[in-house]
Amino acid sequence: MTIFRALNQFINQTLMKNKIVITLFLGFLISTSHAQKMNIAKLDSLFQILETKDKFMGSIAVSKNGILVYSKSIGMDDIESNKKASNFSKYRVGSISKMFTSALIFKAIEEKKLSLKQTIETFFPNIENANKITISNLLNHRSGIYNFTNAPEYMNYNTQPKSEKEMVEIIAKGKSIFEPNSKADYSNSNYVLLSYILEKIYKKSFKTILNDKIVKPLGLKNTYLGGKINIQNNESNSYSFSEKWIKETETDMSIPMGAGAVVSNPQDLTLFIQKLFANALITKNSLKQMTTLQENYGMGIFQYPFYDKKSFGHTGGIDEFRSTLSYFPEDKLAVALTSNGKTYDNNDIIIAALSAYYNKPFTIPTFKTIALKSEDLDPYLGEYSDAGFPMKITITKENTKLFAQATGQSAFPLEPTEKDSFEFIMAGIKLEFKPNEKQMILKQGGGKFALTKK
User: In this protein, which residues make up the domain named Beta-lactamase-related (predicted)?
Assistant: First the structure.
């Protein structure tokens, strides 16, 4: 989603400067609590209203010590054929694929086929700084290699198959954006290259390597390198929402490879991460290296807080699929969420699931809106800004609908929730107007900003 991307970055930077940790689970450091019996009834109520209001399509799984304690699937795998989601539904999990690829690289290191300090010029001599970039740099995004999915032309070819030669040429064309190991910056290019390295050293396809070294040993039933979506195989299509659900195009999986081409489901994902942390895939020493953070980057993994708890995992997004996988080592708790369509923030669902498990309060949305006349919106119209805010927000209306537009972004609709209050639920944006004071309070991702009307 491009809406408010710059705003999200600004909010995150502001909060980090204030030493407030706001990440995937929006955790806050408070007193330790021990897990009580999971509040399944309340969590069921959340999914019931999400399904009734058609706000989310997807699946969730929560497991403790490798034992499933909660699972739910709602919505549709395929709207066109009226195929409902089930626990057998499979989803493209996007960048969660990087955890699988990282584990495979560490297995190769353990087998003495690679080393973390090894540079990549023998594999990719045409990549800028290849004689300086190490396997380690690729794993923790310190290579400096430009992220090819950021290029404007990416959307012109992402549905077409690409060979290794073509992809390496595309990546090499992007050049370096910083000196290797001088800092960290997320790049899908790193993990596409890692996929090809694995193929070269094993002389097998990435699909076969994944199957032989992770899928089969762990007994994963619904995990593999994806291809064209096959509804008959319980694979889901993905959908965006604009007045109605609209089927999205499919990225050709020859492009993301180990950066984002894995297909799986929440139950398999929770089993995978539980086995990863039980050293059933890689050694304790390898796992320690994988989970060691440098500038908040692990090697194919990140750390996320929930209250005083800490978890490791990854999120993913490809086409309109969105996914989250996380593991709390202290409690041996794994949670995975996959979606193929949403207008409700997946992060809020994860927070609810963890709150239900750890006996924390959480609110079930009602999605109630209030009816307003066109003239009721007039006091809110105008341009809002602040010297300490990176962009201006313009509020306009069309008939009885209010719209907000940030500088350089597309306009998006606002739903009235109560007097002087509006929301854009898909992005977690809340706007509270104070017409008499010519002020608008913007809330998103834990950030709160007061803007003044021009």
Answer: 59-344
pTM (2 d.p.): 0.83
With contact defined as beta carbons under 8 Å apart, do 353 and 70 qualify? yes
The whole-number average pLDDT for the span 241-263 is: 96
CB atoms within 10 A of CB 185: 17
Report CA 430 to chain centroid distance, whole Å.
21
Q: Which residues pair with 430 in a beta bridge?
A: 423, 443
For residues 429 and 9, what is the distance between their CA atoms, to the nearest angstrom?
14
Residues 390 and 295 in one domain: no
Q: What is the reported pLDDT for 368? A: 83
Task: Find the mean pLDDT for residues 12-17.
Answer: 37
CA distance 439 to 437: 5
| Contact assessment for residue 124 and residue 164, using Cβ atoms and an 8 Å cutoff | no
Instruction: Judge whether 364 lies within some domain.
Output: no
- Residue 262: pLDDT over 90: yes
One-letter identity of residue 221: K
How big is the CA angle at 41 (ends 40 and 47), to the nearest 5 degrees?
A: 90
344 belongs to a structural domain: yes
* pLDDT reported for residue 242: 85
